[in-house]
Amino acid sequence: MSTTTFTAAPAAPVRRLGQARVAYLLLWAFLLVNLVILQVMFAHPSRPVPNTLTGIGRFLGLHLGFVMALQLLLIGRVPFLERRIGMDKLTNWHRWTGFAIFWLVVLHPTFVMLGYAQLDRISFFAEIPNLAKQMPVLLGMIAAVLIGVMAFTSVRMARRRMSYETWHAIHLVVYVVIVLSVIHQIYEGASFANSDVTKAYWWGLWAFAVGSLLTNRLFVPLVRNLRHRLRVVAVVPETDNAVSVYIAGNRLDRLRARPGQFFWWRFPGHNSWWQVNPWSLSAAPDGRTLRLTAKAIGSTSAGLRQLPVGTRVYAEGPYGALTTAGRTRENTLLIAGGIGITPIRALLEDPELTGDVVVLYRARTPADAVLIGELRNLVQARGARLHLLTGRTADGSQPFSPESLRGLVPDIAERDVYLCGPAAMATTVQRSLRALRVPARQRHVEAFRLGV
Questions:
Q1: Residue 13, Cβ neighbours under 10 Å: how many?
Q2: Scanning 129, 245, 368, 395, which has its CA 20 to 30 A from the CA of 343?
Q3: Is the bond preceding 318 in cis, omega lying within 30 degrees of 0?
Q4: In what order do the strands lie in the sheet with 357-362?
Q5: Is the pTM of this model over 0.90?
Q6: Do 144 and 109 contact (CB within 8 A), yes or no?
């Protein structure tokens, strides 16, 4: 382990912001209000339930419609949520909501077909082609199969066997699923035809979810990119497998990007339109240029070295809650693993990051430590401390155990902790932070997880 130590800068008062708490409260209120509405709908159906089995199927179908609309909001990159809750938590919720959709998709038609099979006095399997003759039901069945494919590719074992680009392309099917599901609900859903009030509810819910998606992922990015006209101005290799891309444009200060945030990046003309990657800013935005630094993991990141100067850039953002806006303490601990150093390095340039700052940077070898020269200059300039933690875990190196963290930063429970790195490392660090009784409000995390 290599360690560089400097004297800390003077501490300054910290603003205590409740932005994340407000976002959580609004989300819970949204969930509870809609769940109450669903129960009222189920209690007052538009037509009688033929039997208990179809009643269970209808109940599950009601909740399936709502959860799918909720999923659209989670993948809609709503700035209010992205900048207060953060990509890490939203991606995790998106994943679990996806599995909830999968099970509802399995159980909803199963109970409906069991109920109708009982009414028609035929077998369950004979009822499937019988119902499939109705076009709305067939569309629902197709949507169910597509959801099954997406669920399978989201299983950890399957994800490890495919590139990020392949996984992302498969999950674009979600938009086809939404269209098929809405058509199925309009023509087949009992609750949709219940009354004018229920129709207004479902149309309003879908309009809100789809409108948020189109606004935040299409219209706003289009307007911003037309305004700023982003272009690649320099491509600089940092290590054998890492590269920095400098991007310039018009009036970049109007993006209001903050150190620690990220954008979703596309390079039209160099990559396919659907290839998009979330890369953090690796330097504090100065209003004139933006810089991203990426490690060659997938085909898109590996191809950044061949980006010609002048290449057009299409960016969505800024997103992310890994900023000083959520600070609660005067002193700070910054933890990074691998290429997760990029937002941490940008945070070191944030003038709002005051007080005593300690940086823990985990890399396999010193040669793998991206931007290490810049880090040393920054910590020296601001009087911070840097610990470069190298070695393999398989060789017994456990730099993020509770004992190791307490040894490196004895007052860790009195600091805000910012963490960015691979999911496995983030899980280990968070487990240690809980063991060291670092309050949740002091933990600011962004892990590398797949997201659409």
A1: 8
A2: 395
A3: yes
A4: 2-4, 385-389, 357-362, 332-337, 416-422, 443-448
A5: no
A6: yes
